Amino acid sequence: MKKIGFVSSEKPEAEQSLTLLKKLYDNVPPKDAEIIVALGGDGTILKSLHKFLKKGVPIYGMNRGYVGFLMNQFSEKNLEKRLNEAIPYKLHPLKIKSYNSDGKISEGLAFNDVSMIRNSASIAKIKIQVNNKTRIEEFLGDGCLISTAAGSSAYNLSLRGPVIPVGAQVLALTPISPYRPRRWRGALLNNDAKITLLSVDHKRRPVRAEADFMEFKDIVKLEVEMDKSQYMNLLFDPGHDMEERIINEQFNN
C-alpha cells in the first residue's frame, strides 16, 4: 500500500472527516506521501493539483463540500481497498502566457480555466484566434473563458457552457455575457489547439486575465494551450457516478 497523506478544506465537515481518517489509517505528512486523499469540494482538488504538481503524486478526492464533480463519495470504510482499485484520469494543465501593455510576459498554469474579462465599466472588445487564424474579429461582451474538462463544471457551467467528461480530449471556449456576435454560444476545440485572445482598444477597454488562483492585469494578449509535458493523475472509484451527474446537468432546466 502506498503511503497516504491527508489534506482537507477548512469546512467543519472536512476537518472532522480528516481527524477520523487519520485515526483509522496509517498516514504520513502530505510532503512525504505517495498518494494524497483530499477532503472537501472541487476547490480542494484544484488546490491539491497545484500544490503537488512537482511531486507528481495521484490525488483521490472525497466529497465534503457542495457539488464535488471531481470527488468520490465519502466513506470512512475500506479506504485502502478503494485506493488500490481506483481508476486514474490524467489531467494536463493549461499553459498561459499573458502580455501586458508594457510588453511584460507573465506565465502560469491552470487546471480549471482561464478567462480574459473586462476590467472597467466599458464592454470588452476581443479578437479571437485559434491556431493563429482569426475566428472572430471583434467579440463584444464581458469576456471569454477557456475551460478544461476538469474545470467545465465550475464557472463554465454557470455560463451555460458544456460540461465535459473528464476523459474527453477537448477544451471549451465560452463567451461571458456576449453582446456581439449575440448568437455565438462558444466552441469545443481539440485540446491541442492554441487559443489567442487579443484585447482591442485596450486603453479605452482594459481587460484582465484570471486563471485558477492567479490574476493578470492591464493585458493586451493572452495565449493559452494545454501543456502535455505535465500532468497529474486524479483517481476515481470504479463505477463513479460523475458521468451520470454530467449527463443530468445537460438535461436539467
Write a short abstract of this structure.
It contains five helices and 16 strands. By secondary structure, it is an alpha+beta fold. It folds into two domains: 4-91 and 231-251, Probable inorganic polyphosphate/atp-NAD kinase, domain 1 (Rossmann fold); 94-226, Tumour Suppressor Smad4 (Sandwich), CATH 2.60.200.30.
Topology overview:
Elements: E1 4-8, H1 12-24, E2 35-40, H2 42-51, E3 59-63, H3 79-85, E4 87-91, E5 94-100, E6 105-110, E7 113-118, E8 124-130, E9 133-147, H4 155-158, E10 170-180, E11 187-190, E12 195-199, E13 207-211, E14 214-216, E15 219-226, E16 232-236, H5 242-251
Parallel strand pairs: 1-2, 2-3, 3-16
Antiparallel strand pairs: 4-16, 5-6, 5-15, 7-9, 7-13, 8-9, 8-12, 9-10, 10-11, 12-15, 13-14
